[in-house]
Amino acid sequence: MPYAPEHDEVPNPLRVGLRADTAPEPCVCVVFGASGDLAHRKLLPALYNLTLGAHLPAAFGVVGVSKTEMDGKAFIADMRDAVGKFSRTKPIREETWSDFADGMRYVAGSFDDPSTFTKLKSALDDLDKTRATRGNRLFYFATPPSTFGILVQQLEAAGLISDPNAPTFTRVVIEKPFGRDLTSARALNKLVLECLDERQIFRIDHYLGKETVQNLLTFRFANSIFEPIWNRKYVNHVQITAGEELGVELRGKYYEEAGIVRDMIQNHVLQLVTLTAMEPPVAFDADALRDEKIKVLRAIHPMDGPDMVRERVVLGQYTAGSLGGTDVPGYQTEPDIAKGSRTPTYVALKLMIDNWRWQGVPFYVRSGKRMPKRATEIAVHFDALPHGLFGAANTPNVLVIRVQPEEGIALRFAAKVPGERYRPRTVSMDFRYGTAFGNSSPEAYERLLLDAIRGDQSLFTRKDEVEAAWKLVDSVLKVTEAPDGGAPFSYPAGTWGPNEADRLLARDGRAWRRL
Ligand code: BG6
């Protein structure tokens, strides 16, 4: 390959915004759960911003479906409020809104009732006529998991699912959680695959829509200098943190059923692990990418029984504490939480990946609610020098990929402190998205909705991937949720989890990065 000099004139890709490599076809996006939080906070603002950025075809419509009785006008007004509040671009641009709202319809009804789907069919037929949406449908299940099965069955019964090889498309986006363990995830896969083809199913994990998460692939596979050292020969260990300041808020009912391992590890955090650890895919397409990610999941050593879980897993639950000078309640006094609840709000895990690249390199991952600050990052710690020329100071290099906030990448290395003596100190080479590209990154849901409309499954989870993730998580939950699994350790809100999580690393002669 000849050496190609660097181009100064390469356009700034984020100023270009979301670029659709394949032009999206006309279609209708049907949002089930249209009166819910996700539709208000994320989905409608995302669809509006895609319209604003001219990423969607003119022939586009949105149908909201939920139990709440209201007419089309009230729905449009409600969605306008939501977009006004939650859109990343403000204020609403009237011309764009008016055209967007013209393509909006609402259907009120229960998901158990076939007449809801008859009404939906007429709304869709109407949009096909008035907006020329040509029979293409994207169904979005922004609803609790218990409804996924019935929704697919009702759509099929109403004749609303087209053949995967037909010229018109039917695609279904399914929100998390996809099951609550391996058995239920398998059952759900079986159920949806009775009515749909895998090519029509888009299991969403919104972490994959984040620019910084996608950038992991670019960073690793579009640069020549990191890949040769990205392995057990040079990497000492990896630390992945996904910390949130927020507590459970008003989601107590859901959270009591889920807990942090299902809520964050099974999906978001394991996505970060797989993208960090995977081999280069043979092509940049959905299946090649997902094939490599699944190999990582399969190579992660499952927790072989209670002894290994005790050694490699630490669970925690927050108690009352203080965050940013404000007192906050403990988990057990939050709404809808049972007294004496054993639900963990923090987890630290030591994962070992049994393959050629990573044998013997621990991946320490932690995630928690009510941490001192919101911080998601991947830190690759390189080996220490074999011999320190400059006395005792020998701080290993660390590469930190900041997923959020302050999105960017920093490389920590030693530099000479100015002066007569050779005294090294650790400094940082820092890339920041905000400075390099401006601050206009699209929201994760914009990217994911656009990909689903275009039919690109790269950033969605495949059947075998979701099952492999559950298999691993099940090996933890089987022990921790057993009657003799014990209670999680407590930690005061506003701290980085229980002391036992520090001991997990201290036993290996390591410590968590201070964030
Ligand atoms: C969701 C979890 O999937 O991800 C929430 O259910 C969590 O509990 C959220 O707060 C974190 O997402 P983000 O994008 O804020 O890191």
What does this structure look like?
This protein is α/β, with parallel strands linked by helices and 515 residues long. The protein folds into two domains: 26-175, Rossmann fold, CATH 3.40.50.720; 208-442 and 470-506, 2-Layer Sandwich (Dihydrodipicolinate Reductase, domain 2). Helices cover 36% and strands 20% of the residues. The protein is built from 15 helices and 17 strands. The chain has helices at residues 13-16, 37-52, 72-86, 94-102, 114-131, 148-157, 182-195, 211-221, 252-277, 286-299, 306-312, 433-437, 444-454, 463-480, 499-506, and strands at residues 27-32, 60-66, 104-108, 137-141, 170-174, 201-203, 235-243, 313-319, 321-323, 326-328, 346-352, 362-368, 375-382, 398-404, 408-416, 424-432, 489-492. The strands form three sheets. It has a nine-stranded mixed beta sheet with strand order 16-15-14-13-7-12-11-8-17, with helices on both faces. The longest helix is centred in the middle third of the chain and has 26 residues, at 252-277. The chain binds 6-O-phosphono-beta-D-glucopyranose (BG6).
